[in-house]
């Protein structure tokens, strides 16, 4: 299909058409061979491993940025249940903390309406207050020590070309890097996604040098599941992890290629949904096929988010004792890559 299209951006056949056909072909092959989709993907791409890793869910429970009208600059505040022993336990801990958070926000007369990905959209006083509220919810849910935090800043949305507008203040790239460093020191943040603009390579390098040993610094807008941009990040030391979205690059083959290149370089790879989603659960199988170790697919709320979690529960039940929960595995890889 790529050869038939012959353009650098799939402009002839169309990326949506190519991706849909690519996914459909893999599903058809799985049906023909009577294999689960994750097994078929391993077979198709020659992935030779007997290990089955169930990914750590990164649950977006407070929405901001373009995902909600909460007024927060940061787009996503996430719970990551790294201390669970199984995926099913991890999902349970996440769901319980989510419900405690709901009660906590309601007790403070804050909105419990949800944003695009099922997270709450309260009008808090500052971005940092979201982290404080999450820590309180984790304590009240009895998950202290088992639950870590992750942030998707989507910083390109509050970058004007030279400065970042954060909590109503203009910050230079250096000051923005300094602010993220303080957050990582103060809170149990193990993953920080798009903390800087997608083209602010010098600031990315600075942040990676200063904080890359303590947290996974994830490029979504920075890398866009594109091996060419990923290679640049590897070469210059910008980030230590990549977010993987099938529709960013437009075919299953290219998606797998990006994951494998990242893993070869010591980068972590997170399989991700989009804010606009359907109930298709393909990415659940993809995460297991590639032993990605982490998946982003929203809050434990809304059917288009739960569809992926339910598929992972089915895969875990099918694999039985062969299934291993990733826990903090992917996050340790990020630290090792920066060392």
Largest sheet: 8 strands, mixed, barrel
The gross shape turns out to be: globular
Rg, alpha carbons:
19 Å
Strand order of the largest sheet: 2-3-4-7-8-9-10-11
Report the average pLDDT across residues: 95
Number of discrete domains: 1
Helix fraction, binned, reads 40-55%
Q: Mind telling me which CATH architecture this is? A: Alpha-Beta Barrel
CATH-assigned fold name: TIM Barrel
Kindly report how far apart the N and C termini lie: 40 Å
Uncertain runs are: 333-339
Q: By helix and strand content, what is the structural category?
A: alpha/beta
CATH superfamily: Enolase-like C-terminal domain
By DSSP (H or I, 4+ residues per run), the number of helices equals 13
* DSSP E strands, number: 12
Attribute tags:
339 residues, alpha/beta, TIM Barrel, 8-stranded mixed barrel, two-stranded parallel ribbon, 45% helix, 15% strand
Can you give a write-up of this model?
The protein has helices spanning 2-5, 15-33, 37-44, 87-107, 127-140, 173-186, 201-211, 227-236, 246-249, 252-264, 282-289, 303-319, 329-338; strands at 52-54, 56-63, 76-80, 148-152, 164-166, 169-171, 189-193, 216-219, 241-244, 268-272, 294-296, 323-325. Helices cover 45% and strands 15% of the residues. The protein has an eight-stranded mixed beta barrel, surrounded by seven helices. The chain has a two-stranded parallel ribbon with strand order 1-12. Strand 7 (189-193), helix 7 and strand 8 form a beta-alpha-beta unit. The protein contains 13 helices and twelve strands. The chain has one domain (36-338): Alpha-Beta Barrel (TIM Barrel). The chain starts with a helix and ends with a helix. With 339 residues, it is an alpha/beta fold.
């Amino acid at each position: 299909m790529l050869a038939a299209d012959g353009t650098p951006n799939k402009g002839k056949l169309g990326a949506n058409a190519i991706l849909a056909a690519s996914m459909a072909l893999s599903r058809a092959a799985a049906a023909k061979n009577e294999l689960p989709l994750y097994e078929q993907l391993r077979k198709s791409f020659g992935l030779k491993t007997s290990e089955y890793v169930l990914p750590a869910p990164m649950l977006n429970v407070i929405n901001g940025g373009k995902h909600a009208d909460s007024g927060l600059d940061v787009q996503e505040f996430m719970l990551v249940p790294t201390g669970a022993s199984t995926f099913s336990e991890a999902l349970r801990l996440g769901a319980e903390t989510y419900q405690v958070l709901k009660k906590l926000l309601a007790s403070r007369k804050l909105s419990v309406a949800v944003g695009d990905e099922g997270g709450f959209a309260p009008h808090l006083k500052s971005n940092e207050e979201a982290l404080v509220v999450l820590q309180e919810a984790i304590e009240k849910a009895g998950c202290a020590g088992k639950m870590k935090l992750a942030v998707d800043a989507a910083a390109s949305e509050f970058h004007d070309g030279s400065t970042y507008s954060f909590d109503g203040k203009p910050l230079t790239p250096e000051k923005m890097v300094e602010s993220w460093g303080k957050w990582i020191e103060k809170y149990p943040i193990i993953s920080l996604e798009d903390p800087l603009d997608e083209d602010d390579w010098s600031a990315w390098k600075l942040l990676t040098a200063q904080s890359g040993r303590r947290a996974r610094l994830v490029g979504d807008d920075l890398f866009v599941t594109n091996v060419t941009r990923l290679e640049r990040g590897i070469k210059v030391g910008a980030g230590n992890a990549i977010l993987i979205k099938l529709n960013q690059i437009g075919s299953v083959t290219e998606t797998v290629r990006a994951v494998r290149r990242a893993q070869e370089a010591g980068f972590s790879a997170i399989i991700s949904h989009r804010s606009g989603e359907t109930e298709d659960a393909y990415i659940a199988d993809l995460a297991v096929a590639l032993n990605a170790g982490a998946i982003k697919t929203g809050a434990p709320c809304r059917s288009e988010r739960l569809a992926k979690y339910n598929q992972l529960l089915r895969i875990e039940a099918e694999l039985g004792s062969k299934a291993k929960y990733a826990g903090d595995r992917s996050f340790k890889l990020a630290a090792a890559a920066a060392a």
